[in-house]
Structures are given as C-alpha cells and as structure tokens.
Amino acid sequence: MQSTDFNPHTIQSCRLNHWMCDVNDFGVLAVTGSDAYSFLQGQTTCDFKQLNSDTWIMGALCNPKGRVISIFYAVATESGFLLIVPVSTLNIVLNRLTMFILRSDVTLANVTTQWHMIGFSLSPATTCPFSLPPARGVISQSDRYLLQCHSTNKQPKRYLILCREKRLKETLSQLEHMELTNTDSTEWHLHEIANGIPVITEKTSEIFIPQMLNLDLLNAISFEKGCYTGQEIVARTQHLGTLKRRMFVLAGSSQSPAEPGTIIVSQSNQAQHRVGQVVRSAVSGKQLIMLAVILKSAAGLTDLCINTPEASALSMMTSFDPETPLP
User: Fold this and answer.
1) What is the model's pTM?
2) How many helices (H) and strands (E) does the chain have?
3) Cross-strand partners of 245
C-alpha cells in the first residue's frame, strides 16, 4: 500500500493505541439451513470456501448492475453463518436476500439484539488474559467470537468481540483488567478509516462497484468462484482494466463529519469538475478524516473540497492502490 506519513495517532482523539469502545453501528444477521453455504456463495462477492471456524471473511452484496448494496463480515457458526452488517443497511440486505431464497433450505433472521460488539486495540506491552487470533483470524468460544480486524502494516492491531449477553460481564471484566481507555466509537471509526475499511450506508447503497471501494485489495472479491449477482460487471471491470475510481484517505478541517455520498469537487472548477464522493468520515477536534471514492486522474490535485456551503478544503493523505501513488 502506498501511503504518506498519515497515522491515526496524529489525530487528536485517535492518538490512543490502548483503548476499547462499544461498536453500535453494526447489526447481526443469522443465515442457517442446509443450503446456507450455497445460497451465500451465489449472492455475494467473497468465497465462502475460505471461511472456517478459525477465519472470517469480508464480502459484499451487489445488485445485478454490480453496485454494492452493503458490505459485511462473515463468521461460521455450528448452525450456519453470522453476517455482521451496518445497521443502516441490515433490513435492505435482509429483504434482498429473502427475495432469492425461493425453495432453498435457508432461514434468515435479524439477531442483533442477541449480540454485543466491542472494539479494542492493545499496546505491545499489554498482557492479555485471553488468546488473540492471528491476522484475519477468529477465536470461537461458547457464545463469543474474537476477530482480528484488517490492519495495514503501519497501523496498530485492532480486534472486534462479538458476544452474547451471558458472556458480556466476563468479557468487560477481562478488558477492564488490561486497563484499556474506555472511549466512544469515534476511535473505532478513525482507525477503520486509517486502515481503508469502507462502510456502505443507506445513502451510498447501490452507488459504487466493489473495486471502487478497494474490496479487491481487501480480499473481499473472489475472481475464481462461480457466478453471483453482479459478477459479470465486477469481472469485466477487473479483466478489462477499466477502473477509473479508487478509494483514498482525505483530510480537512471541520467540526462535523461529512455525510456519506457528499460530493467532492475540484475547487477551481466547482460547477464542472466533480471528482468523487464521501464513503465514510469522522471528526477529531476540528480535523475531518474520510474515505472517499475519487477519480484516479485526480490523485495529484491539490484543490479538492467538499461541495457544501463550508467548502472544506481537502488533502489526499493515503492511496491504498500501488498503481495510483500520490505525488
């Protein structure tokens, strides 16, 4: 990954590398039944063959035009799968998948209220009272899943705990024993942005194709498995090399986050030159940090801004695509 010196610890409220917070922006969808595997394999971008009790996978649900409806994490359970989905698109995903069940032995259920999610990061010197999984790994215990989230080489390791109510008190006690700084979810979002992890909300659903969101770089697309909804468009983009947009980290000054889908323009030519859209953002102090899908040809521009009354100027901080380095 090509990067500038951007680091989440340079941001005021993201200077921590020893923290914990509730992650309330995600819901949980249970997929069970004898046909659950083949059903999900035919509806999503990722390869469920890669999923076992020791790993998690990231994937996307697309419409027939190859536009991403939502992004999810999946873990295997004894009875099927759990999909960790943004709350704002969970019902959209549930309704879309329900349309394709037909005669398949598949049951879908929104089980969000049965689970708690906690994100945390440890300093290297911390002694953890429980085992930690390797990269992209999962440690599955009774009613609790511990995932190591995707991190770039320059960023601290982050973890996500998914646990039921009866394991919550024990889990919180273990985390408190490590004297983690209890913070709000802004910390989680800032670290997610720094690591290039996109989130699709209701406002951005069905706007981007997976490669625009760097999902190919995040191993969330399989180009070897069989057909799935939207696969023809996704594969054609990959093999013809026609991708004109990629996702970048940008930073500016603002006291409030930029809404997903907000237009980004070239400041010298606002009316004519739209160059991208915001995917997700967070604010620390007066610093705005975001992931945005931007024209690759605009990667070297220094006059970008959000197309809002405030017209906050933006600097491009990180490119995750080695074929699109920043100047």
Assistant:
1) 0.92
2) 5, 17
3) 295
Question: Residue 206 carries which DSSP code?
Answer: T
In the chain, the amino acid numbered 191 is: H
Calpha distance 247→317 (Å, rounded): 11
Query: How many other β-carbons are positioned within 10 Å of the β-carbon of residue 325?
Result: 11
Question: Which domains occur in the chain, in start order?
Answer: 8-194 (3.30.1360.120), 210-318 (2.40.30.160)
Exposure on the CB side of residue 24, measured as CA atoms within 13 A: 6
- Token pair of 60 as six digits: 């996307």
The angle subtended at Cα 147 by Cα 145 and Cα 149, nearest 5°, is 155
- Write phi, then psi, for 189 (nearest 5 degrees): -65, -40
The tens digit of pLDDT for each residue in 14-35 reads 446 789 999 999 999 999 999 9
Total Cβ atoms within 10 A of residue 268 = 12
Distance, CA of 138 to chain centre: 17
Structure tokens at 290: 């975001």
